[in-house]
Sequence to fold (346 residues):
Amino acid sequence: MRRFFFSVVFVFATFLVALPTASAITIPTVPVGNPGNANDPSDGDENTAGIQQFGAVSYAYRIGTTEVTNAQYAAFLNEKAKSDPLALYSTNMGSDPRGGIARSGSDGSYSYAPKTNMGNKPVNYVSWYDSIRFANWLNNGQGTGDTETGAYTLLGGTPTPSNGLSITRNAGASWWLPSENEWYKSAYYQPAAQGGDADNYWLYPTKSNSAPTLAIANAVGDIFNPGTNVANYNHGADWNFRNGNVTTVGGAGPLSESFYGTSDQGGNVSEWNEALISGSRRGLRGGAFNFLANGLQPLFRPSSNPPDENFDIGIRVATVPEPGTAVLAVLAFGFIWALRKRLTNR
Fold:
């Protein structure tokens, strides 16, 4: 009996250790704490009358350290787009030098791979619907995980779902597209008490109220000048536009991260969020490599039609906080205690 008990404990412990490596891809994330923070008091929305404030989030969460990369999205396509009835792949990814994923094979056996020097750069040419389907896939464990249910419910089985404008995040989601407040907080928030701006929010997501220095990148997308307050905007990294070298490798400017440790929330590519704007458009934040400095600021609140797939739009995802080691220890103890009691009573 005792041998059986310890065998079960060993199997359970092995399962806990193996759990983080079970997924096909890993999305690095950073924790966003300080729950219950107030909105940015100085932000205004230039697209609507009056003042609209953002940034307040009442809970802790995690958000992608970088934008979703071409390599990560190609892994998704290889699992879910062998025939691609949902148009998860845009042919512009292959035909446009600024796109980063090539497709080969024929319908039913398509395969996908990042182009040379593009694997660690942000994926582009993704619609809002592509983005939430990618989140569903993560939410459902990757692999053969469903794209139409999970964090979001999409109806109709077509690239543009029949319920497109009414889609909201489902309760219990484990991976999702950030809300506008979640995105905004992770980019601009830094408490004044911890070295931040007087109103707890910076003007740029590089921990600065001054416009960033233009990032200068080489052919593979590494930044030559990765100092403090550097971002890829205003074609700064565009050393050879015709060859598609317009975006930089995710996280190539480690000294220019936000307070929470995110990279490229200003510049590189604009990022979809959950906001529904003007009744039929979805929100974008952060500006892109081809934006001026004001496009990186909190005031700039663009949007696009959900089916749009553009060369300067990408994805960042968010997830639930990781359980602390103390929580895991409590769960393990509870499991072992319950199992031992059950065996003892036999």
Notes: The domain at 62-320 is CATH 3.90.1580 (paralog of FGE (formylglycine-generating enzyme)). DSSP finds six helices and twelve strands in the chain. The chain has a mean pLDDT of 87.
